Amino acid sequence: MARNSVQFQKELSEAEFERQYGTEQACRDALFRWRWPEGFECPACGERRHSAIKSRQLFQCSACRRQTSLTAGTIFAATKVTLRTWFRAIYHVTQTKQGISSIELGRRLGVTQTTAWTIKHKLGQVMLERDAKRQLTGRVELDDAYLGGERSGGKRGRGSPGKTPFLAAVETTPEGKPVRLKLCRVPSFCSRAVEDFAKRGLERTCEVVSDGLPCFAAVTKAGCRHTVIKTGSGARAARTPAFKWVNTALGNIKAAITGTYRSIAPKHVPRYLAEFQYRFNRRYDLAAMLPRLATAALQAPPMPYRLLKLAEVSA
């Protein structure tokens, strides 16, 4: 049997991570290169001439005299932990296939669970924003799913309390190989929600393949072609060849969430889904995932803890 090219690819080992990012200065140097590839550029006026205030780790523009730090205006802004801790967090979040809980992340980083949770969710917000506007193309397998378990004594099946509905779509090649994944929490499985998802997440040229759930027909309102394959229910339906990759993705996501997180708050579901989506879509180059996420974090606006904890996350 041929080896799976994704599972057996050369990833970023812990030894290599330590060699590249094992010191605070190495992390600062890397962030500087990724934020300003052509050299320092003042965020206020664009001037490149500057001087370094080493005692405060600031850069002062020679034109407008504005002082700025390496992390100002980014997801790292106002951080109380070292950049090396951030880099180690990015390493664990990107290199673990099943995800990592904030408790386990805190143990590995040597910080409190609250600090680890904050770092993890800030990175999740970066992942969410990074892929939000990217659309799937070509043939797309579409399915519905829930996160959350049954509650004893309550209603079962669709509409039961404690469950968070979301849509999963997998773009495939003409040969049937998976390309990219799109996950989106929805208020319910209705035509309006499916139409909104299709308009935001699918190109108009998409050929969507779905089961017989009536609301999936709304993808045509977004300009997509739609093919219905009725599968019934149960394990047999999950083995339908036409939905092989979307069912595989859903199985992996649910198993990871059950095994790693146990349960997650509905308002934070989009960030957890964004993690799986981000890793899946970049699975062919694990070693490059750390610099890619760090670069995206430099381009993301600050996200204070109070917003992470209290605000409802937009899918």
UniProtKB/TrEMBL annotation:
Pfam families: DDE_Tnp_IS1595 (PF12762), Zn_ribbon_IS1595 (PF12760). It comes from the Bacteria. Signal peptide: none annotated. SMART domains: DDE_Tnp_IS1595 (SM01126). Residues 135-281 form the ISXO2-like transposase domain. This is IS1595 family transposase. It comes from Paracraurococcus lichenis.
